[in-house]
Amino acid sequence: MSFNEEIYEIVHNEPAGQWELRTRNDNLVIGYLSYEIVDAEIYFTRLTVKSEFTGQGLAKALANKALDYEVAKGEYAIVPVCSYVQKVWTERNS
């Protein structure tokens, strides 16, 4: 299943150090991808999506959005600590 932009949105919440997956109709945060910046590296530490929203490709969309942003920005070396982000990062670079 693919990410439906009419139902969900992905927002970069820099003050919180995370990317958030939200429902468009009520702005409810249903998932997030946390990160930490240390020197010249960005560590993606945890990705979670509420269980009732799994199986829709939302985690992958969230990971890809954050990775796309960081690759385009080119400011930090990407370090995928979270196993799921590591899987997505490996798929993108193989």
What topology emerges from the helices and strands here?
Blueprint: E1 8-13, E2 18-23, E3 29-38, E4 41-49, H1 58-73, E5 77-80, H2 83-92
Parallel strand pairs: 4-5
Antiparallel strand pairs: 1-2, 2-3, 3-4
Overview of the structural elements:
With 94 residues, this protein is of the alpha+beta class. It contains two helices and five strands, in the order ββββαβα. It has helices spanning 58-73, 83-92; strands at 8-13, 18-23, 29-38, 41-49, 77-80. α1 links the parallel β4 and β5 (77-80).
Q: Which sequence of strands runs across the widest sheet?
A: 1-2-3-4-5
Q: Could you say which overall geometry the principal axes of the C-alpha atoms support?
A: globular
> Spans with pLDDT under 50 lasting ≥5 residues?
none
The ordered H/E elements are: EEEEHEH
Tell me the β content: 35-45%
Describe this protein with a few key phrases.
94 residues; alpha+beta; five-stranded mixed beta sheet; 2 helices; 37% strand; globular
Short description:
The chain has 94 residues and is an alpha+beta fold. 28% of the residues lie in helices and 37% in strands. Helix 1 packs across helix 2.
